[in-house]
Amino acid sequence: MLAPSLLLRALGKAPPSTEVSAPLLPRSQAEMAAPCALTLPSPLSVSSSSPRRSRRSGVVAMASVGQKVYAPGVAVSEGNGGLPKIDIKSPHGSEAEIYLFGACVTSWKVPNGKDLLFVRPDAVFNGQKPISGGIPHCFPQFGPGPMQQHGFARNMNWSITDSEVIEGDPAVTLELKDDSYSRSMWDFSFQALYKVALHSTSLSTTLKITNTDDKPFSFNSALHSYIRASISGVSVKGLKGCKTLNKDPDPTNPLEGKEEREEVTFPGFVDCVYLGAPSELTLDNGLGDKIVISNANWSDAVLWNPHLQMEACYKDFVCVENAKIETLLLEPKQSWVAEQKIELI
Ligand SMILES: O=P(O)(O)OC[C@H]1O[C@@H](O)[C@H](O)[C@@H](O)[C@@H]1O
């Protein structure tokens, strides 16, 4: 049972919307709709004053204002450190957990019970430091840069704006808006909407950043995905030919190069940005699983394994991050949308 104060935080500041949240775009549509930055004519949220339910082309949505009513397969509970988390369960047997702090997906279990994500043993759940593991956000800065490492979205509380069932599977949408904390680092008004949709063998996320200010802003971003692995057996396919920015040895002065390998492996420390990455990478996690990480509009990728810098856990994970490294400019009212799908094949 969630403590009342936590429940209030979980229910968040914004009323859930039910009418206009679209199912995840098929890849081709997402690409067409968002080649770079697109202007959406109308705001995304339509608020309701009482719980209600709508059904449109396979989408069932349930939401309430100030009441704990979510779509079937979606619940809010108390997680580590008393932080609220969303639990989503698919009737196909997969499940995921998302902390409102950082909108961080910390667990994604496929029907055989395996959790394909990894949370570092040094992760703290105190609502102060970002959660080190799962899929943290890097926004509005990937870094290094003038702001704190990876920006602020991973250490702010997001709120739930929508929950729905799409063709039998649950999905939730979280929202982040600027506040005094974000403005102390980045003085802009913005809205981030993050939709997480569970399927039997895949997890999709759609991130939409909207400039709600009256002046343009620039940002970059990444989904810093920690994938459970056995590092000596890990390989990532699909990056051959990409321009690389190798952050080893100096992250502030990365070395330019080109990836020549069909398969990238992790025999030691790796911290490398791949510019113009393809829309699909194949990861062998070294544990017997093949995972396809596909995306629309995340133009770049990052591979990271800390090796002996994190002696206690480096063997157990690899970060394969979809990223937008080259700075993106959004004019007032413009939005940028990017989608990621992680699929066990
Ligand atoms: O420990 P953090 O702040 O989550 O960052 C971990 C790493 O994240 C990676 O994305 C960066 O490329 C690395 O340079 C960085 O060290």
Automatic annotation (TrEMBL):
Any one GO biological process: carbohydrate metabolic process
InterPro entries, sorted: Aldose_1/G6P_1-epimerase, G6P_1-epimerase
One GO MF term attached to the UniProt entry: glucose-6-phosphate 1-epimerase activity
Residues making up the signal peptide according to the UniProt record: none
Source domain of life: Eukaryota
Bilayer-crossing regions: none
GO cellular component terms, semicolon-separated: cytoplasm
This protein's UniProt keywords: Isomerase
Name of the protein described by the UniProt record: Glucose-6-phosphate 1-epimerase
Organism phylogeny: Eukaryota, Viridiplantae, Streptophyta, Embryophyta, Tracheophyta
